[in-house]
């Protein structure tokens, strides 16, 4: 260290001090470390990405400047290490994003630098695809005496002058020569030698993304909004300049929410000088997973052809993502459509945020920082003082609870009563609005949903055939399929489980052998695969471990049996029963790349597929007018999971997939097969009755203080060593109980206890669950625990605030 100062005193003399948050996240300094700013970097600004030395070995490490100070708050100024250099590609974040990052770091209990790292696409950090071009332009103050110029030299100088006047001061050497009619670049070089032209290096990211190809086709006729759409739009327009507000657009499936978003954005774009900013107005549209929602994206690209749209999602190559980000950062694109992380788009003058399908769990990131894209969107809107629109046919209970100004309070038995929640929520509801689109867009009706009792069905089959056993397709669904095929309509069949069979077992119940993963506490799933000599493979859906299918039980040597449902089995059953139908399966196994979805959906739209079988992937936002039949093979897959949101998920899945039917003037029909025909979430989904479902479910959650009425956080401790895991979890829990008691005991702590899946990928897992009446006490407890050094954000401990996945 000392040497560094002695050898380069002038360059490293500190002109200021910077708080730098390191991307790798340092738990002992969660908000960053102090570094000296050398004279060479005197113009450094907050938000810039820099390289700094770390640790004894001064390992160069990336971080972001959070704040700059004239003096250092640290006692020994001598030992402060200097920043090495700024990011080679000049990457920086806007002040607005710095504020947002600070909130995320504190709310989700994650080191600030890790949040910054998450905000930037990896391709931007690596500079993938960037090339440096040498540009030439007129020299500001030509050196030397004017000399006589050749005709070509003069032509080039004139061209450069004209371009400069037209706001293009810099041109590539070759291009300038071409424009002036010179055959080679030598006259340009001569002018550079004479000092009449000068050079400048410009970085550019090359990528070949053609957004035009992704536009929706058709739908060119301007739609006339129906009354509810118009009311919704008027409401939004009225609030555009009213500052922060959350507007939940609860519109039934096919109610035309997209059209409302489009018009609201049109309005924002038209109002260029609304707030006196130099930058054009901009907007962000979040969609759950772009590969699954190509139609929504297509509609935006179609409508805003003139404006500059950028897309950000995992289907792009690294260079394409980098190029899109640069366009946004430079202000060339001002409408950004993307998945979760697009909420970090570095836009200036942001005026509106839209979160489509806000209930989708894919908005929650499952690694640190474990943020929820929708909630970050709300915070970003709050910081920017602008409206955010959340759209869904099946709103999350979190959002519905907030906007409906619900009367639910945590009951006395739930311990979690607190007066301050009531007051907070009163304050909050003023900014929260509910807009409803109760009917489908003109010309379409909600489909009729029938519930089919599978136990009844089993009995009927037995009476007819004399054979016991479960059939994937009920008689009613079989008949409906036959009819739909005859009418040249299309069908979607949902089964939320991949593979062929999810149980591989010994047929002898006294033996009871069941094939489990070696590394996880779950059963293995059998996948058929004709490309394999064995005809299939047994796979774990949690760690991806694979084995071959055993032919006999390892314990008692009887021939094994496979049972349980899977999409492959449905596909096989359809091939047997409807040999002439064109069937395609759409799940994570059959669709490996973004373009697979695109191809499959294009084929479906073109009518080349009669029956589309798939997991929840097919339930999302798709709009195909010829779908007349939707079948849910088994509505119970999510119902019995050990997760307090099981009913909510079941409701959403059924309501959403049912919503794919009848999206034209032809009526749609939906058949839902279940062993729990009287379950309220299934019953109410069949009636399209979201309100009753929500009221009922909220009442039950209130009774036990669960979210959204109470707030939850969860800590998962994992370790390959069972005892180390249990011990660490116990130490943590004991310490937390103490902190909680010290702070007045406002948090209900549960655990440590094994997670519902107690081992994944050979890691044992223990959890501690926290519930409180509001977020504040959870924050206090987590902060105290972190400050005590017990909550390192390493691979052994995961902190999850507002958890979505509980397994
Ligand atoms: N006012 C209108 N008149 C005629 N058609 C309309 C109108 N508004 C929307 N549509 C059409 O209705 C269909 C459904 O609209 P959209 O996909 O926006 O529904 P949605 O509310 O997003 O539904 P979901 O929640 O199921 O995704 C689209 O094909 C759209 O073009
Ligand atoms: Zn496994």
Summary tags:
binds adenosine-5'-triphosphate, ATP-binding, binds zinc ion, 6 domains, alpha/beta, seven-stranded parallel beta sheet, GIY-YIG endonuclease, disordered N terminus, DNA-binding, about 800 residues, six-stranded parallel beta sheet, Arc Repressor Mutant, subunit A, Rossmann fold
Describe it:
The chain has 807 residues and is α/β, with parallel strands linked by helices. It has six domains: 2-126, PriA, 3(prime) DNA-binding domain (GIY-YIG endonuclease, 3-Layer(aba) Sandwich), CATH 3.40.1440.60; 130-205, Arc Repressor Mutant, subunit A, CATH 1.10.10; 223-276 and 283-294 and 337-437, Rossmann fold (3-Layer(aba) Sandwich); 448-497 and 566-687, P-loop containing nucleotide triphosphate hydrolases (Rossmann fold, 3-Layer(aba) Sandwich), CATH 3.40.50; 498-564, no CATH class; 711-801, Alpha-Beta Plaits (2-Layer Sandwich). The protein is built from 24 helices and 30 strands. The strands form seven sheets. It has a seven-stranded parallel beta sheet with strand order 11-12-10-13-14-9-15, sandwiched between helices. The chain is globular and about 105 Å long. It starts with a helix and ends in a 6-residue tail after the last strand. The model is unreliable at 1-11 and 408-427 (pLDDT under 50). Adenosine-5'-triphosphate binds at residues 219, 223-226, 229, 251, 253-259, 393, 441-442, 621, 623, 659. Adenosine-5'-triphosphate (ATP) binds next to helix 10.
Count of DSSP H/I helices: 24
CATH architecture of the largest domain: 3-Layer(aba) Sandwich
What is the subunit arrangement here? single chain
- What is the CATH C-level name of the largest domain? Alpha Beta
CATH superfamily of the largest domain: P-loop containing nucleotide triphosphate hydrolases
Share of helix among residues?
25-40%
Overall pLDDT level: 85
Enumerate the strands of the largest sheet in spatial order, edge to edge or round the barrel. 11-12-10-13-14-9-15
Structural class: alpha/beta
The major β-sheet equals:
7 strands, parallel
Total number of strands: 30
CATH topology of the largest domain: Rossmann fold
Q: Which ligands appear in the coordinates?
A: adenosine-5'-triphosphate, zinc ion
Q: Cα distance, first to last residue?
A: 48 Å
How many distinct domains? 6
**C-alpha Rg (nearest Å):** 30 Å
What is the approximate shape? globular
Beta-strand content: 15-25%
Low-confidence stretches: 1-11, 408-427
Subunit structure: Component of the replication restart primosome.
Pfam families: DEAD (PF00270), Helicase_C (PF00271), PriA_3primeBD (PF17764), PriA_C (PF18074)
Domain Helicase C-terminal: 548-704
EC number: 5.6.2.4
